[in-house]
Write a structure and sequence with these properties.
- The chain is an alpha+beta fold.
- Helices cover 53% and strands 17% of the residues.
- It is globular and about 40 Å long.
């Protein structure tokens, strides 16, 4: 998605109310998609939405 907002790890931490290591664990385990630009890690907002939706479906 070309106009997808790219979030930083701290932004994702605030939105999910999770710690840094937990967010990186989600990325490492491929439960949360991300990309690297240079040395910066970015998470597309749509990937965060997908993660939340999937997590809610599993909890139901």
């Amino acid at each position: 998605m070309p106009d997808d907002e790219l979030l930083t790890v701290p932004e994702v931490m605030r939105r999910l109310r999770l710690g840094r290591s937990t967010v990186y664990d989600l990325i490492r385990s491929r439960r949360l998609r991300s990309l690297t630009i240079g040395r910066a890690r970015r998470i597309p907002a749509s990937a965060l939405d997908t993660y939340i939706r999937r997590h809610l479906e599993e909890a139901a």
